Amino acid sequence: MTSSENARVGRYVRMVAVPGSGDELATNLLKVAEGMRTAPGCELYIVNRTPDDEDAVWVTEVWADEESSEAALNRDLGEAGLGSVLPLLAGPPEFIELVPLGGPGLTAWPGFSQTR
Description:
By secondary structure, the protein is an alpha+beta fold. The chain is built from three helices and four strands; from the N terminus they run E-H-E-E-H-H-E. The longest helix is centred in the N-terminal third of the chain and has 15 residues.
């Protein structure tokens, strides 16, 4: 499958807070998630924690297309709430790029059979 077969994009984003700031980072990212509810093309934006790293926060994102994702990232940082997140990071976020296909909570893209 090529990216042209599915315009939808997804990613896992791992952010690590400066030591002791994981809760604050998670709280601020939940505020960002609220703002993403109205972002055009945002299909999923979930903030996650892992039980074994108190300073790591993961975000699961699904966008209708790359343009929607880029537009959301290029919005005014204050408007998106990202301005409160950046100072809490111990380093740059890590990205895992994905091609979402479907499943519970996410409709399959046209032309793809989930029974394949």
